[in-house]
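Hi F.,

I've been meaning to write this up properly since the lab meeting, where we talked about keeping a consistent format for the predictions we share between groups. The idea is simple: the sequence comes first, exactly as it goes in, then the structure tokens exactly as they come out, then a line or two of notes. No screenshots and no reformatting. I'm using this chain as the first example so we have something concrete to point to.
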Amino acid sequence: MPTVYNWQLGRPMSYPYEESHPSWQFAFVFNINRCIACQTCTMACKSTWTFSRGQEYMFWNNVETKPFGGYPHNWDAKLLNMLEQANPGGQKWRAVDPTHEAPYGRFDGKTIFEAVQNHYDKQGPKRALGYLPTDDEWNAPNRHEETATGELGLHGDWGGSAQLPEHRVWYFYLQRLCNHCTYPGCLAACPRGAIYKRPEDGIVLIDQSRCHGYRKCVEACPYKKAMYRTTTQTSEKCVGCYPRIEGRDPLISPNGEPAETRCMTSCPGRIRLQGLVQVDSNGKWKADRWNPLYYLIRERRIALPLYPQFGTEPNGYYIPPRWVPRPYLIQMFGPGVEHAIEQYACPDRDLLAVLQLFRTTQQIIFRYEVEKGPKVAEIEITMPDGSLRTQEIYNDTVIGYNRFNVEVVRTTVEEPTFERPAELHVNSI
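Output, unedited:
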């Protein structure tokens, strides 16, 4: 197999195709700490894209409860076990000083592409390690929602502490959609060449005219976000709401401005920030300090990829939850967890300003700037290691600009209050 460089793993890896990258890459950040699992994003996607016959079980966007939830059931645990069996005791990270080329260290284990070398099925050499979920595994998208005990009959320590940095009884919500990976497992496995990355934005699509429904993409996608439709006998997946990315919504994008996807814009918890980052011919993100996604992911490393050890270099990133035991988070997001949580626990002035941009506009923010404001508070913060730190809060104003450098949002760190005039409103104070 050809060799490509995966910066999330900090090393080259095997992949069935040579390096080939879009000029811009669709990417997003989810702040798990804010999610309330209202499923508004899930239903926004469902009502837009998967409301037809044969799509009843399809949830291109879903929110599941960890550690015991998942759709399809146990999708991540099953694949992690398969990788461990393929490389017993070897699925480990090596601690090295963070660099731009290896921000999380180096993963010395095997990816889904490396774990199947010299493995074959009826169609020939296998391209990626994976499995086909059973019908039963697709039958309940919200299984074990809001439970910390898992299977019936098991009991947690309900008298345990609920103090930070880690709760003894815990669960959290994981927001999921197609990661539009840099090295997609679905694309690698498709024998028909029906799956491709768009050169203009990196969105991964399935050409329905070429798909013959072999379900190799369903088997190979480690996140199980390629799904088979029985009525058409083809596979389907999240399309990244590409008409909105192209700026073709006449109301949101009157001048062709790229807009965020349906699941992003519907979020009442303001946990989502979606955008585009510029990529060079070698697959490296071009340094852009004032792009909010680049700043959060590459510069501050507060948002982390989901299961980077799978090797697909996903373009969905998560601010990990503060209260969850660290070993669980590290196996899910890699060894950058401690650094990310420490920053989120006590964000400095610049980071706090950027965090205000989540869900403030439907148009994609390509650039931001901060206007300095007065200090409004000092708060003593208990850090994850138990130490105390004083957080200084400034009422800065953060401004977001769209692709055409037009201002689309202006918001302050301190939430404004409005007093309605008593002469106009009888219920005013």
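Notes:
Residues 75-86 form the longest helix (12 residues).
The first strand starts at residue 3 and ends at 6.

If this format works for you, I'll send the rest the same way.

G.
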